[in-house]
Amino acid sequence: MAILIPDVPKDCPNSERHVYERLGRELPDDWIVLHSLGLPTHGSKIWGEADIVVLSTIGVFSLEVKGGTVDCADGVWSFGGDFNSYSKRESPWSQAMGALGAIRDRLRSANSAFRQVLFGYGVVMPYTTFTASGAEILQDVLLDRRHFREPLGSYMRSLERYWSAELQNKHGRAYRGLTPAELRDARQILRPDLETALSIGSYLTGVESRLVHLTNEQIRASRRMAANPRTVVRGPAGTGKSVIAIDRCRQLASDGHKVLYLCFNQLLAAHIRSGAGTDLPAGALEARHVHALYRDIIAGAGLLDRLASQDDSSQDFFAFRFPEIAAEALCEQTFDSWDVLVVDEAQDILTPQHLDVLDLLLKDGLRRGRWHFFLDPQQNIYKGDVEAQVDGRLAEGAPAFDDLFENCRNTRQVAVQASIVSGVDLAVTGAPDGPDSEIRYYSSHEDAFASLEKLLRDLIDADVRPEDIAILSTRKHQNSLLAGRHELAGRRLFDPISMGQSKSGEILFTTMHAFKGLERQTIIAVDMEETGQDTWSMLHYAGLSRARCLLYIFLPSSANRAYERQAEAFGMRLKGRLT
């Protein structure tokens, strides 16, 4: 059985699915078959796509699949069948040839050894008998209804023979198939696994290793961004937004652009600074916490007294007044703007005042500049007129929109439990199975401490590293369940906000708000007394979704009934989606 990437094709005609799955069953084990390969460097299109690409020991082949009827009149090709009918001036053979050209150029530019490899294309019409002839029709590379029931391995060998002979006659030389090493190399060049400091670590379980690689959906989104200067990527927690954002930053910085990565979380900004840009040219990628950057801008303009005169406990301070002063400061000084702006967790700063600052920071502004916003619509706290104004401002830049639905961070059990407790649903599609998430009830603080200590000792005894565990609270340390305690299970508790760098063997303790945008293999949630209360749901959602594989939630016994109501509500939401 050949390697299929992805395992299951999505959102495609039945004809494509049929051909793709048969190729997987019938081709050799060491061959690789890619479905719906995006081609941003297509020679004649802004964005091209190959239906199916076969990487094999006999060569590289691009297959164009057409289901249903196929007709051509006056140079216009018409297609119909198991999808909506449509017309093109480009024949299926021209489509396959164009896709192959983009694939060949991409591989050869990455590695000159691919110049020795055989490249060819074919057209598959599984449900149609197509006997027409013409200058742009190659019957030799067509597989239609007449022979579709024959082994597809035979068809691939016929493509090898045809293109070997054609290229021998044209170039006077023979071409070969891919070596095992080139098969792996070609796969990574055409459909790489995106890896960043946020998603790759020293994982301890087989379950977690399935969360290392992004799904085809996230890879597609990343590649579409390469073809669009302005994009808005939307998705719930766990769908890979931060990973894609950082990968896009690195790609742009590597291409020579001066990139600013902005986020609302200072821990996340520090994490990116320490890992994502270390191998890039100096100054190519700058990762900043929004408020720290604003403060530096205001200080540079000598307006810190204006900032100090504001009430930072006011509900309007961070949303409106802080960015207003930052915008004024930018207008009063000269500074070097950034070529590209990437904003992660953008829902936290979606107000017109923040957009004023971003517009001034970016070369050519938001209307004509290059920017990418990543946001979770479920966490957007700005509604009504503010949301309408922001939507209008962003629309002026005519951005492309992308929506993510597949969970590439959490196991299914984590996603479900976090959805139940928070009342806000995480993506479950694509999430692998993992260990059960647990609710642990306690009757007193002493009972909670004893249970927490036992859990930590059990996890560490089971080879879970302390560094892979985070205890998250809805409250600061001095007001939390662990107030006054700086050690558990013989391990020092480390708070990155107040204590700087951690040491080996310490266990992280911080607030859910401060940990937003980060993740750990194991999350233990405490101070969850308000479970079921609407005003706390978004904080619980943001915190619990940080767990990749293991999630433990400590609840007082008095919250038992509230949890049951949350579980019932989740069941009703799930039932509603299924009916």
CATH topology assignment of the largest domain = Rossmann fold
Tell me the strand percentage band: 15-25%
Strand order of the largest sheet: 16-22-21-17-20-19-18
CATH superfamily of the largest domain: P-loop containing nucleotide triphosphate hydrolases
Detail the poorly predicted runs.
42-47, 194-210
| Mean pLDDT across every amino acid position | 86
What's the main sheet like? 7 strands, mixed
CATH architecture of the largest domain: 3-Layer(aba) Sandwich
N/C terminus separation: 36 Å
Shape: globular
Question: What's the helix and strand layout?
Answer:
Layout lengths: L2 E3 L8 H13 L5 E8 L8 E9 L2 E7 L3 E5 L2 E5 L5 E3 L3 H19 L8 E7 L16 E3 L7 H20 L8 H11 L15 H4 L6 H11 L3 E5 L6 H14 L4 E5 L2 H10 L9 E5 H11 L3 H5 L8 H15 L8 E4 L8 H10 L3 H4 L1 E6 L8 H12 L4 E4 L8 H11 L15 E5 L2 H17 L7 E5 L13 E2 L2 E4 L1 H4 L7 E5 L8 E7 L7 H11 L2 E10 L3 H19 L1
Parallel strand pairs: 1-2, 4-8, 8-9, 10-14, 10-15, 11-12, 11-13, 13-14, 16-22, 17-20, 17-21, 19-20, 21-22
Antiparallel strand pairs: 2-3, 3-4, 5-6, 6-7, 18-19
What does this structure look like?
The protein has 579 residues and is of the alpha/beta class. It has three domains: 3-190, Trna Endonuclease, Chain: A, domain 1, CATH 3.40.1350; 206-403, Rossmann fold (3-Layer(aba) Sandwich); 412-578, Rossmann fold (3-Layer(aba) Sandwich), CATH 3.40.50. It has 19 helices and 22 strands. A seven-stranded mixed sheet has the order 16-22-21-17-20-19-18, with helices on both faces. It has a six-stranded mixed sheet with strand order 1-2-3-4-8-9, sandwiched between helices. Strands 12-11-13-14-10-15 form a six-stranded parallel sheet. The model is unreliable at 42-47 and 194-210 (pLDDT under 50).
